[in-house]
Write a structure and sequence with these properties.
The chain is an alpha/beta fold. The chain is built from 12 helices and 22 strands. The strands form 4 sheets. Strands 3, 15, 16, 17, 18, 19, 20, 21 and 22 form a 9-stranded mixed sheet that branches. Strands 4-5-6-7-8-11-13-14 form an 8-stranded parallel β-barrel, surrounded by 6 helices. Strands 1-2 form a two-stranded antiparallel ribbon. The longest helix has 22 residues, at 240-261. The protein binds pyridoxal-5'-phosphate.
């Protein structure tokens, strides 16, 4: 792993330098928006949910993830308002499998979409009825399918004919009927998306050309209940019009197959992947335009009994989260300033550009000096023994020294659980949620000995 990460860091090196120009809250709209979402548009120090980041770091230690319940609520409300009452919102738990975050979104009216048995247990613990959950993912094992049925799962988002047969066999053996919706790999790609998952040969979804035969088979299968169709074609999409066009393609395909096959496809999950600014210079997704387009689409194709859904992860969770990390050591090397932090790639891999093609600095601020002049150029990264553990190279920030507090904004999605936190066996960070001006631990800090758990000589 170390070898692979070192190589990818070398490959990224040249690009990092070229992209490090946009640096301070005042000149980067993405950073300014992330601060505004936290209510810190004009603040001189970072405050989360009414509590200064400085106080949170002192009280709970660093590295630390902090989630604002009010910002989370506001995100969900904004999405619900923009999409209108006919479009249900499912929370994609993978973006932040925090029990507190999942429960909060459920309380706000979001359903949930899961992608593992672990997420199924988490969703149930967060208060979701299993019968209301959808289970996606191309590699569900027979054991997982059986366990999900036993727990009363409502609907499998199926990704292959092979999987359909496994679910039918499991349901038959259990004397149950399993709900299924077929994930479709439409022939067109989702434009404007940073990572595309359909419109080409893919492990995800059933090719549109193969779908009619499979839909016929499901409709004729006694242990299966055909619920409808699902599509999820890519993540970090910043083109609202392209999303609406893609959704329309699914709706038209559903209507055509209903006519041709004499079947009902009542549930249409139009997918998600709405983009959120995560790196310097990132654009904004036009939620209002997506909402208008989707509401028009629904108005044209609605009917009684039809269930319309979207599934969103990062767009709901990213803005509510902040990752706090302190400078541990500073030095000059080859005339350049280097900072070693207590947090890094093992806890926030995305902030180090892992999973991105073009590496750019994350939305990083000096937490106690938001308005300070960005006069110091620093290369900064975490404690791991790999150059891949680096947030940014020669980034202009207000002067920093050991003990100072840095914050990665828009860190509420794909944080800890997206990161290789077993690498180098550091303790995992605590997670704190702030509600009504008071902070509580929602995930305990790990311990240095945790790496020994379950191991035997
Ligand atoms: C099937 C499916 N649904 C939903 C999501 C959530 O995506 P995002 O967090 O970009 O909204 C993903 C992410 O990979 C996914 O694969």
């Amino acid at each position: 792993m170390q070898h692979i990460m070192a190589r990818s860091a070398l490959r990224r090196k040249g690009r990092t330098v070229a992209c490090a120009a946009v640096t301070s809250p005042t000149d980067d709209p993405a950073l300014a928006n992330a601060l505004r979402a936290l209510g810190c548009a004009n603040a001189t120090e970072l405050v989360i949910g009414g509590i200064p980041a400085r106080e949170l770091a002192e009280r709970f230690g660093t590295p630390l993830y902090v989630f604002s319940a009010e910002v989370l609520d506001a995100r969900l409300r904004a999405v619900q308002d923009a999409l209108g009452p006919r479009l249900g919102v499912l929370y994609s738990i993978k973006s932040n499998p925090s029990l507190a975050v999942t429960a909060r979104l459920r309380a706000g009216g979001a359903g949930a979409e899961i992608a593992s048995l672990g997420e199924l247990h988490l969703a149930i613990a967060a208060g979701h009825a299993p019968s209301a959950l959808r289970f996606a993912g191309p590699g569900k094992t027979d054991a997982e399918i059986q366990a999900a049925l036993k727990l009363g799962l409502g609907c499998f988002h199926v990704e292959s004919a092979d999987e359909v047969r496994a679910i039918a066999a499991a349901a038959q053996a259990a004397g149950q009927r399993a709900g299924v919706a077929v994930r479709i790999n439409l022939p067109q790609e989702l434009g404007g998306s940073r990572m595309r998952m359909s419109g080409r040969t893919s492990r995800f979804g059933v090719d549109a050309a193969e779908a009619p035969q499979l839909l016929r088979e499901i409709a004729a299968s006694a242990p299966l209940h055909l619920r409808g169709l699902h599509v999820y074609a890519g993540t970090q999409g910043f083109d609202a019009a392209a999303f609406v066009r893609h959704a329309k393609a699914l709706v038209l395909a559903a209507e055509q197959w209903e006519r041709e096959l004499g079947i009902s496809l009542d549930e249409l999950d139009l997918g998600g992947g709405f983009g959120i600014a995560t790196y310097a210079g990132d654009p904004e997704f036009d939620l209002a335009a997506a909402g208008r387009g989707l509401q028009e689409l629904i108005a044209e194709h609605d009917r009684p009994g039809r269930v319309w859904l979207v599934e969103l992860g990062r767009f709901l969770t990213a803005p509510c989260g902040v990752y706090l990390t302190r400078v541990v050591r500073s030095k000059l090397s080859g005339g350049e300033a280097h900072l070693a932090l207590d947090g890094g790639m093992h806890q926030h891999a995305a902030a180090c550009g892992i999973g991105t093609v073009l590496r750019r600095p994350p939305l990083l601020v000096h937490a106690t000096d938001l308005r300070g002049s960005p006069v110091a150029k620093v290369t900064l990264g975490g404690p791991l023994c790999t150059p891949a553990d680096q947030f940014a190279e020669q980034l202009a920030l207000p002067p920093l020294r050991s003990g100072d507090l840095l914050a990665v904004l828009a860190a509420g999605a794909y944080g800890l659980t997206y990161s290789p936190h077993g690498f180098l066996s550091h303790a995992t960070p605590a997670e704190v949620m702030i509600t009504g001006g008071s902070a509580r631990i929602v995930r305990e800090r790990g311990r240095a000995e945790d790496g020994l758990r379950g191991q035997h000589l």
